[in-house]
Amino acid sequence: MTASLPHSKADEADSPSRVRRVRHEIKKRELSVVAAESITPNMRRITLAGDSLEDFISASFDDHIKLFFPGEGEAPAMRDYTPRAFSNAERRLVIEFAQHGDGPAASWSAAAQPGDTLTIGGPRGSFIIPTDYDWHLLAGDETALPAIARRLEELPAGTRAIVLLQVAPADRRPLASQADVMLHWVDSDAALLDAARALTLPAGEGYAWCAGEAQTMAAMRQILVEEKGHDRHAIRAAAYWKRGTAHHHENLG
């Protein structure tokens, strides 16, 4: 599902890599759950709907929207999640939730059913990575799986993609793509980093994107830039969570 990009303002290029940022008007939307399913033992797919999605914008596969969950006090608990898919015409938005821990997002998504409501905000902006690089490296853990799955669906035929995914065997699933995909599943942080070290990066202009646990992603970036010599302007590394911290999101460069 795709959408046009109305009401967005392009900024200057982020780097010589042709990546660009766009900013969007921030808007809160009150949505209703229309479908909830467990697509693997530890991943829930929630489909939300509402007329306010008519002008929803998500221009990049790793956009983040703010989800507002009921908290114990007056203030809601807020978490960042990737729009997995959306349709302006159908007024629908799909979000996938990894079911680990007992935080507000995992608890809400585990119990969600049609008729429930959820408030979302954003995305604030998009970091648009062109699809016409000679190759793409996508790496991360289960929290990055929705973004990686969306990106693979966006890549055109003839594109080369290398994917490193740390996901439990029970939660591994086919990932659709027209691209030529080399997919490696691994079981641990250490195995993910070892897989990166074992890579021979292809020739040509490539872009690396990685997201997951903070310390692991910092190490991943170091491996790719300092050990492999990958262009520091052609990588985006993000901490989607941090071990021992309840709520963490950070861009690592």
What general form does the structure show? globular
Outline the low-pLDDT stretches.
1-15
Question: What CATH architecture of the largest domain would you give?
Answer: 3-Layer(aba) Sandwich
Number of strand elements: 16
CATH level 3 topology of the largest domain:
Rossmann fold
Helix content: 10-25%
The strands making up the biggest β-sheet line up spatially as 6-5-9-3-4-8-7
- Let me know the largest β-sheet: 7 strands, antiparallel
- How much β-strand is present in the residues? 35-45%
Q: Provide the structure class.
A: alpha+beta
- The CATH superfamily of the largest domain is known as Nucleotide-binding domain of ferredoxin-NADP reductase (FNR) module
Rg (CA only) = 18 Å
Q: What's the domain count?
A: 2
Mean pLDDT over the full residue set: 90
**What's the CATH class of the largest domain, please?**
Alpha Beta
The first-to-last residue Cα distance is 29 Å
What is the N-to-C order of secondary-structure elements (H for helix, E for strand)?
EEEEEEEEHEEEHEEHEHEE
- Number of helices in the DSSP assignment: 4
